[in-house]
Amino acid sequence: MNKLRLGTIGTSWITNSFIDAALDTGLYELNCVYSRNKEKGEEFSSKYGDIFVETDLESFMKKDTLDVIYIASPNSLHYEQAIMALKAKKHVMVEKPASTNVHEWDEMLRAAEENDVFVLEAAKHMYIPNLEKVADEIEKLDGVVGATFPYVRYSSRYDNVLAGEEPNIFSLKFAGGALMDLGIYPVYTAVALFGEPEEAIYYPRKIRTGVDGIGTIILRYEAFDVTILVGKIATSLYDVEIYGSKETLIIDHVSHLDKARKVDHQTFEEQEVHLEKQHENSMFYEAEALAQMIETKDEPKTKERYKELSDLARIVSGLLNQLLTQAGIVFDSEA
């Protein structure tokens, strides 16, 4: 297949990571970068060679030299930009959260279908090979009685908040906060491994800007609960724990899934769980998956996988909406 011509929106480290991952697959070439600031865009793209920088968003979307657009702008801009790209008949990988509500996600899927292209949410850990292996290990447990999924990591941007500023990631205007930035990872993992919960409850602590800085989520299933610890104003060093009746499955991180072990409840004996050595850039697999789906778009397995990912994203989006509503967090775009 010919290499897919990639365009990107966003000039942060995560866009660099996706570009690096896409190029590593050997299935993409970077064609264009969008930035409102020409100098910033040129500085960002310089490591990739002589890449054209577009400062007009509409012109960027209409370029006939682009096949795929990766969107990593502030959260509140994802929907509008994704719709523009899809209507321009571009395949889209939009950084999580792809939308701020289920309606927006449904509109993206509709636009993708009408224009015969794909839209995927960049929940990178849904594409990594070890997710399936972890699911297999859970099946080997003698019943699940509970789980704890922590993702609490201090953000240097919180220093700006403490200094009286309001960075995008901590702003209601840009749909920021701990749940939308980090909490989406463990919510995705829980739904992928255990299905849609019967009930979801969020106990957040808001910060000065009005978003959630840290909080605890309880996902209630028929026979067990998943406790999710999420935050951007502190750091947790705990691993993921999934409790069986006789053993605990311990995983290094909710979004990496690189290492795992089992611990016997009575003897405390540890047994290493074999997981595959994964690519050093965890975004490699989502980039690869999109390229493969584009190449095989008419095959039944591809259509089935696309629906599976779309439905999963819809469940997660609905849960995030529910948790935000409970917390009384209303983004400016929703007000």
TrEMBL record:
The segment(s) forming the Gfo/Idh/MocA-like oxidoreductase N-terminal domain are 5-119
- Gene3D superfamilies tied to this protein: Dihydrodipicolinate Reductase, domain 2 (3.30.360.10), NAD(P)-binding Rossmann-like Domain (3.40.50.720)
Q: Which domain of life is it from?
A: Bacteria
Instruction: Tell me where in this chain the GFO/IDH/MocA-like oxidoreductase domain is found.
Output: 164-249
> Which is an annotated GO molecular function term of this record?
nucleotide binding
Q: What is this protein called?
A: Predicted dehydrogenase
In the record, what lineage is assigned to the organism producing the protein?
A: Bacteria, Bacillati, Bacillota, Bacilli, Lactobacillales
